[in-house]
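Two folds, back to back.
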Amino acid sequence: MTDPLLEQALRCVDAFYQRIFRNWPGAVTQTIGDCIVSFSGDARLTGANHVWPQHPDALSEPVLHGAAQFFTRYHAAWSVVLTDTYMPGWVERLEASGYYGRWSTPLMVLTGPPRDLARNPDVRIVPATQQGHIADVGRVMSEAFASGAGVNNRIGRAEHLGASDILHYLAYQDGEPSACATVALCGEMAGIWNVGTRYRFRRQRHATTLMLAVLDELRARGIEASMLMASSVGEPLYEQLGYRQIGVTTYYGPPYRAGFGGA
């Protein structure tokens, strides 16, 4: 039986993709079998162009062949998104068929108050309420993640201002944006995304202060549980806050050769 907390966390991931990438002008999404197959509108976004299984038994050879044909129409690079604890056995099946891991990330959850870590008193946390804030989100992301316009324009949009389900937060020091985070609300859990800090503000507790403020805000809304996908840089902080790993999510690229699910 699948862990209900794992299922809830994956629903939050799916909700984030739906709100950020699948509803972008030019995006195309369809269902093949019991998998969501989505083209983001940008052929280079290997994470947003993906096959998303809707339950542990959703993947199959016909689904993968259909996905390969779908993405070929858009000349798009793409990935199968697979969490090991949700679909045991499929890691070996994909790798045996020539699929390769583009990247992997721990899937982590927090189900109560975070540990009380030291904050930076010189950092001011601001929810994004103005167009200038959205521009600052893109500015931080560009430096923190080396992300381009294809991602930044989808993550930070003017239409998110005042939205009830997508929230952006910024950290400022001396008027300069130093760190950012995006929150996607999904029922009784929230997904926290794109927590990044500009280089000259790192190792000064900017991300710590930002995360604690975001978690304070979520608890004020009655939301005690949150999930995130951790980078290798961010994982130690999340562990200090009390997050625990419930799986590893890997983005698998299709085999270069013809065959099982090949492009």
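---
second:
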Amino acid sequence: MPGRIGGATVVLLAAWILGVGASPAAAQGSLNVYCSVQLEWCQTLATEFTRHSGVKVAITNKGSGEVFAQIKAESANPRADVWFGGTGDPHLQAAEEGLTTAYRSPNLAQLHPWAVKQAEQSGYRTVGIYMGALGFSYNTELFKKKGLTPPRCWADLVAPTLKGEVQMANPASSGTAYTALATIVQVMGEAKGFEYLKRLHANVNQYTKSGVAPVKAVARGETLVGISFVHDVVTEMVAGFPVAGVTPCEGTGYEIGSLSVVSGARNPDGARKFVDWALTAPAQSLGARSKQFQVPSNRSAEIPKEAPRLAEIKLIEYDFKKYGSSAERRRLLDKWDKEVNALPR
């Protein structure tokens, strides 16, 4: 964000305001979307879906961990119709717990196999809409000024020279950080992985609420290194900040950003229409228009030329079934909180 905006932002867009050519009487109700990608992308989605359908859209912008907690808290009286974006692990957990409902869109045939597999694995309660690899961001100007070698591997982040200079999000609120936690456990094994996380903790200056916050801090010179999805690094590079990205030499995990219909949605018909539309190539190309650089799940969607080349990255066989399960996710988060986060720095 995977995962990955801190603080709720609500945007309400009405069809008549946008001049979509549909009278208020023709509008097809309203839709509440919890959106876990960058705000600019959320706003563009809302604008274009209203233009496409005449449905008014209210956006609540939060990280995927926060959205999962909110949907769970609201399960007796759901307020959202759709959950768009954010890492797939909490979407899979929501599916397992019945917080989202099954919907098999006719547009599944347009998607890459990894997106369809996400749908099949969840009993069609979620579906992949984009893919992105996990890595590091670092401030090129500060590294040069300090005479430091940029990190290339997970092992580099625990070097004494980076004490107090690494930033990552809290895995309980951020899908990006949970992907990092699950990735480290899979790359190193759980015992060695947690020993590594304890060493890393000594170098971390802050666990942010949102997964995109570390790369923004790196870009603005507030910290040297951030654990980030590399497509978020590209966003800051394109904006002109002195930041670069790298994927770790030992191997890294990835996210399948997902899309789900909330169980008990107040506008289930509108929710299904939104899903059908969001899986089309034109809708998925809106990410690039919003300067977001994930790889879309629709095979015909525009892939930005700046997007990271996944074929060139050493990706692990990330076990979404295991690490997206309710029991495993809760166990890992509890263990991290007790054994890592509780340590002094």
